[in-house]
Amino acid sequence: xxxPLDVSFFARAAKPLSSYxxxxxxxxxxxxxxxxxxxEMDKLGWDSCDVVLxxxxxxxxxxxxxxxxxxxxxxxxxxxxGIIAQPDWTSAEAFKALGKPNLFWGVTAGNMDSMxxxxxxxxxxxxxxxxxxxxxxxxxxxxxxIVYSQxxxxxxxxxxxxLGGIEGSLRRIAHYDYW
Length: 179
Description:
Layout: H1 38-44, E1 51-55, H2 66-76, E2 81-85, E3 104-107, H3 114-118, H4 144-155, E4 161-163, H5 165-170
Parallel strand pairs: 1-2, 1-3, 3-4
């Protein structure tokens, strides 16, 4: 038999992320902070963000917060990244704070699933939130990843949306929701 050998199942080393050519916005350099408002974007000299990350947690520029890590990785590749932390989910206005993203929305409920973060195992509402300034509860909705995605679509329909985080991965499983 002279059939070609199928090698598609052999493991291949992934190309390092840093080996790709930097995006054109890298000429702006590294920002001392990822902007969360139009005023902060103006200080950096940006007219728009390439990527807007939406998270249910407070924004802390520290490796223990996933969106800070993702934001800094994207920034290292030359993208202008803005963050909307704990937005008001009742309207799309909070999602328009940084303007229309040039490339995509990045959405996550935060470091923890929003239902686990809001309710105890006995289905009682928690009185605190470890990922909110002042431990104030109630700053994110139930099933926050779904709600934030809907509001992003309401704000700018034609912008692609990338869902990530623990809630984004677990909501795919039908039997996951205990509530």
